[in-house]
Amino acid sequence: MQFMLLFSRQGKLRLQKWYVPLSDKEKKKITRELVQTVLARKPKMCSFLEWRDLKIVYKRYASLYFCCAIEDQDNELITLEIIHRYVELLDKYFGSVCELDIIFNFEKAYFILDEFLLGGEVQETSKKNVLKAIEQADLLQEVTLRHA
Amino acid sequence: MVLPSLKLQDLIEQIRGAKTQAQEREVIQKECAHIRASFRDGDPLHRHRQLAKLLYVHMLGYPAHFGQMECLKLIASTRFTDKRVGYLGAMLLLDERQDAHLLITNSIKNDMSQGVPAVQGLALCTLSTMGSAEMCRDLASEVEKLLLQPSPYVRKKAVLTAVHMIRKVPELSSIFLPPCTQLLRERHHGILLGTVTLITELCERSPAALKHFRKMVPQLVQILRTLVTTGYSKEHSISGISDPFLQVQILRLLRILGRNHDESSDAMNDLLAQVATNTDTSRNAGNAVLFETVMTIMDIRSAAGLRVLAVNILGRFLLNSDKNIRYVALTSLLRLVQSDHSAVQRHRPTVVECLQEPDASLSRRALELSLALVNSSNVRAMMQELQTFLSSCPPDLRADCASGILLAAERFAPNKRWHIDTILRVLTMAGIYVRDDAVANLIQLIGGAQELHAYSVRRLYSALAEDISQQPTVQVATWCIGEYGDLLWEGSCEESEPLQVEEEEVLTLLERVLQSHLSLPATRGYALTALMKLSTRLRGDNNRIRQVVSVYGSCLDVELQQRAVEYNALFRKYDHMRAAILEKMPVVEPSGPQADEEAKESGEAVPSPSEPQASKLMDLLDLLDGSSGEAQQLPPMAPSPEDSLVHLLDLPCDPPAPAPIPNLRVFEREGLQINLSFVRPPETPSLLLITVTATNTSGGDVTHFICQAAVPKSFQLQLQPPSGDTVPAQGGLPMTQLLRILNPNKAPLRLKLRLTYTHFGQSVQEIFEVNNLPVETWQ
Predict the structure, then answer these.
(1) In this predicted structure, which of A24-28, B427-431, B493-497, B556-560 has the lowest mean pLDDT?
(2) Fewer CB within 10 Å of terminal CB in chain B, N or C?
(3) What is the annotated signal peptide range for this record (chain A) (predicted)?
(4) Nearest-CA distance from A74 to chain B in Å?
(5) Across the A/B interface, how many CB contacts are shorter than 8 Å?
(6) What are phi and psi for residue B248, nearest 5 degrees?
């Protein structure tokens, strides 16, 4: 995976994870154009599109678009599963997640993603293990805060 | 005194509460000032909160580079909270373009080697997200150590970090290749997945690694088989499929290992068949695995039956109600259509149905695939479908569809009439979307199909009468009417319905085209010339045409004005030549270069009349359009400078005589005569065919007859085998032999012949030069 973007129906960015080195300017340009392209898609259209030389896989959950850019040899259908798994993890962690959770707890959203994907690849296929790791890290954070 | 700054939650609230962009900017600027101040001299315990705020603001698009150093400080802190936010900041704000990024290398190193898995995890995560080549080189050995750590949490991250490092610094492959064997024996799915990914990366970069890992095919097959056959573990399953992520990754690796390698391909054949047939396809997870399986089957050296199975799976995908599945099916079939054409052909009806998809990305794929599937046996049916599609497809696909149809028609047209009809229909439906040469091609096609002239002109006339707005159709139609207008009102055509057309109607139509504001300047040029041509084809008088032509003599369009003036001149001063100039064009042979030029000229905006008869008229036509019309004869060429010739005499050059080349008797002795006849095939101007004919009117046979020839160095000579070596007596069957001479430089032809034979019991040898060779043999 080259990058993952989460954005609202108004085009506001809620999370951006880049797995390729690009300048801030390039990132902004790509984000702007891709958001526009995806938002222009009609609801009944398929989840895949070709954009520049990348394959884009996107899915909308309530008011949030989850958008991944994958390479030519990557499997689009499994990418849909990756997106879905991430949403499930967020849902389990926040308890019936909605966009506001992601807005007000964006660092948590990143931490959860970083326990599921690493360097653009899936690192853990057990939902249980991912959630356990987050739990433990949260605990560790609380401990250090309390002692501070 | 430091003003109290907002908590992260409050900041977010305030930003969201801002009604305008300007308000939002104000809030953020104020807060950033606080953050800056806090970084400078605020409480280090709260630094992580400040950075978190900054990161939020950064996501909204505001500059945050002044937080980079803070990330470093936080990462260096001993508190987990600080590290967590600090590393997040590093991943968001630092990248390999900034020099500052190298400064975290040390912290990462320290964090990797101290014992808390969560902290090691943070370090590895950051390294694998933004680690530059230098960082990777520095930290490779640390990561290698972590591959052996007891904690699977750390090991799985280390493996994927190794993947990233190899991507950045391929030479590091040598470090990470050896541990793979051990890692592949792991039971932990995360580590296994990471290892398969790592092996894939290694094999893609090095043929040596590829060879090494082929030995592991049986092991990989076993892992996959276990996943597929044993009952699912709730922890790793999705919709009843055991760990589809791991299955897909293994299948991908098997694809790379089996490619171009029979042994490996054989080893995985059974398993692939098993997965292909047993995977539950009711949900996306199963289809994802099935899709990867199909891709692998098609890419390795699989058995023919398995390949057909794979293509059929894709065919089933085409019928799936989920359009994502249909999309990947169309994409994959497109990739396979060249290599497995007949297998894909079987699914042609389904593909054609997909043309009706409302989703443009699907219908585009279906269009590409449909065009690739056209062949000589299905061309009629396919063209029908494609033309239906063309009439209703979204505008951005029209151009591709139109060109695709025209190309396929050119390749597979069953007959000329169908071809003409098809191009005409495409032009009528999608005229503005076709390529520029479509008009020229159609004109050439019609011109070359003499038997269809009557049919074509009738169809085009009807089409034009209906609609004069589609420019390509109008252009072709006016050209056709100009050329073959006489076929409209005389004679009938069996191929179309009887059409009663009056001359006046035709003239009216052409005038309409000429006057219409819808017509492009080029089209009007066509129309004017067509009218002019009709002046020689009408049965009645030309007054109407003369009028039009003289009116346009003062047209504002310079091109039209020029034509009109010249046509006027044709009427007034050169009326005796008009008929010859405006004669019908000769049938164009598409293969010859001269014909191509003619076709080009006829296809350009300016079709020029044929056969200039006098030099004055040549000038006239030069003025018209720069091209000198279709002169049937090339103007006489000056003889080329003499080449150095071998043992031959100088001969004077005859002036060019336009006639078929006369035969030449070159030798006679005791009843044996040698005649030469010459042919210059029009398609190949540099070729001369000489037939040597030997006849014998004497009483004795001529036997052992051998004829040899010599030509100057610049020529190429080829002697075909003679019809025999005996020339029977008393005027018996002559012996013939063909000489092929290539004269690319158009040099004067010299020919020397050597004859050896036996006649009346005597051996005869004669060597002589052929005199009086007609100059048409080489000019």
Answers:
(1) B493-497
(2) N
(3) none
(4) 9
(5) 156
(6) -60, -40
Q: Is the Cβ pair B287, A77 closer than 8 Å?
A: yes
Cross-chain residue pair B163–A121, CB shorter than 8 Å: yes
Q: Which two tokens stand for residue B474?
A: 């109008």
Same domain, B571 and B687: no
pTM assigned to the model:
0.72
Task: Please answer yes or no on whether A141 and B84 come within 8 Å at the CB atom.
Answer: yes
Q: What is the four-CA torsion angle of B355, B358, B364, B369, rounded to 10 degrees?
A: -30
Residues of chain A neighbouring B249 (CB-CB closer than 8 A): 122
Range of the domain at B464: 425-582
Query: Where does B157-279 show beta strands of DSSP type E?
Result: 237-238, 241-242
Pick A126's closest partner by Cβ from B60, B189, B285: B189
Q: How many CB atoms lie within 10 A of CB B479?
A: 26
Of A19, A73, A126, the CB nearest to B236: A126
Q: From CA B336, how far away is CA B703, in angstroms rounded?
A: 65
Q: Which of B582, B598, B622 is the last residue of a domain?
A: B582
Give alpha helix (H) positions in chain A.
24-39, 76-94, 99-104, 106-116, 127-147
B751 inside domain = yes
Beta bridge partners of B676: B664, B692
Q: CA-CA distance, B463 to B451, in Å (whole number)?
A: 20
Return d(Cα B290, Cα B307) in angstroms, integer. Answer: 13
Q: Does B615 score more than 60 pLDDT?
A: no
Higher pLDDT, B490 or A32: A32
Tell me whether residue B392 is in a domain.
no
Boundary (domain end) residue, out of B524, B548, B582 = B582
- Whether A76 sits inside 8 A of B190 (CB atoms) is no
- Tell me: domain A3-147, CATH 3.30.450.60, correct? yes
B128 contact residues in A (CB cutoff 8 A):
118-119
Cα(B756)–Cα(B765) distance, rounded to whole angstroms? 4
Same domain, B436 and B578: yes
Residue whose C-alpha is closest to residue B164's, from B130, B190, B202, B128: B128
Test the B interface: residue of A19, A83, A121, A142 with most B CBs within 10 Å: A121
In this predicted model, what pLDDT tens digit does every residue of B402-412 receive, in sequence order? Answer: 888 888 888 88
* Chain B interface test: which of A125, A131, A143, A147 (most B C-beta within 10 Å): A125
> Is 80 exceeded by the pLDDT of residue A138?
yes
Going from N- to C-terminal start, the domains of chain A cover: 3-147
**Residue B405 contacts A, CB cutoff 8 Å:** no
In a domain, residue B8? The reply is no
Residue-level pLDDT at B487: 81
* CB < 8 Å to B54, chain A: none
Two structure tokens written together for B244: 């589809």
- Per-residue model confidence (pLDDT) at position B502: 79
Q: Which long-range contacts (CB under 8 A, 24 or more apart) does B32-35 make?
A: B32/B57, B32/B62, B34/B2, B34/B3, B34/B5, B34/B6, B35/B5, B35/B67
Mean pLDDT calculated for residue range B388-403:
86
Task: Give bridge partners of residue B668 from the DSSP assignment.
Answer: B673
Residues of B in contact with A12 (CB under 8 A): 60
Secondary structure of B350-416 in HEC code, one letter for each residue: HHHHHHHCCCHHHHHHHHHHHHHHCCCCCHHHHHHHHHHHHHHCCHHHHHHHHHHHHHHHHHHCCCH
Write out pLDDT tens, residues A28-75: 999 999 999 999 998 888 999 988 889 999 999 999 999 999 998 899
Name the residue in chain A with its Cα closest to that of B127.
Answer: A119
- Closest-CA residue to B429 (of B453, B397, B456, B455): B397
Nearest Cβ partner for A121 among B12, B61, B197: B197
Q: B291 CB near a chain A CB, below 8 Å?
A: yes
